[in-house]
Amino acid sequence: MKPENYPPTTIYDGETGYLLEWDKQSAVRVRPYKYNCQPTNKNDPKSGNWFFPSALSFLSHPLLAHLTPDQVQELLARNLVSFLEYTTLLEHRIVNRSVEHIVHNCLPVAVPHGMCMDALRIYTDEGYHAVMSADVAHQVSEIFGISQTTRQFSRISRLEALASGFQQQALGWFLIGFVSETAITKEFAKMGRSALVPAVHSMLMDHLSDEWKHSRCFVRMFSYLWPRLTRPEREFCATQLPVIIQECFRLDESLLERDLAALGLDSNVAQTISAERNNETANRLRAKNGASATLHALRECAFFSEPRYVANFAKHGLIDPAG
Length: 323
Ligand SMILES: [Fe+2]
Ligand SMILES: [Fe+2]
Description:
Layout: H1 22-25, H2 27-30, H3 69-103, H4 113-144, H5 154-164, H6 169-188, H7 198-225, H8 231-249, H9 253-262, H10 267-277, H11 280-290, H12 292-300, H13 307-315
Helix pairs in contact: 3-4, 3-6, 3-9, 4-7, 5-8, 6-7, 6-8, 8-11, 9-10
The structure holds fe (ii) ion (2 copies).
């Protein structure tokens, strides 16, 4: 699943950029649009899963042991719709907002032309991912009769609120993109181990193939910036990165409660399951594991050679105090 040479080396490839094969590799340029879910019979168990069961660890909870296979598939479908609606918003309101600061060379360090071009390529990819995600979310909603109201996703609202308070707007938004783009591959990597509905699988795989490259590209961008930042700018990064990482992995329990309620389950069931998985220890562990690629990239840049940065990340439970 992982491309060769992952994780990447820490040098940014100069003037021409890193995504040089974008025109021959990106989903928007070369992948056929094979995301039609209509032929899938939702009542046929052989059709595949509508989302990764492994991503819904709560499915094994004793309080849900009585769910029928059809109810499990509906729960998976509802999670898929939420995930895709969230993805659509994330691409536009978070990732591309971050990328704009690179495209237009607004960062505190002037970046090479190639990096601006890569940011433009990523911007285009993310716009296309939003198209794919919104389309499949709509199709699956129609198949399962899920009402598509305009949903709020607390993670997006929290990230926007965090960003609005940044003293260094462009650098802060870059950090949000860096964390978000290096974290997403971890979420998607679960997909390879589950038999999904073919159209859903195609769409997610095509998205993932782009995201591996984005992740590596963002790591290289960060590696380019880090040695060129001033001390106050580094201090800003060291302070904000753990906060951003934690926000990127905090669960939105309202989604689970809504989905379980839609299946007709008692609200106490959802609240019990939510309370068990949404404690501080679980949140910290989720962030530490989910951000492993981000943390690896920081280590590669010798980010943790400053003991105070180590202490701050350890305080947030993201690394061991020894670094
Ligand atoms: Fe994307
Ligand atoms: Fe991306």
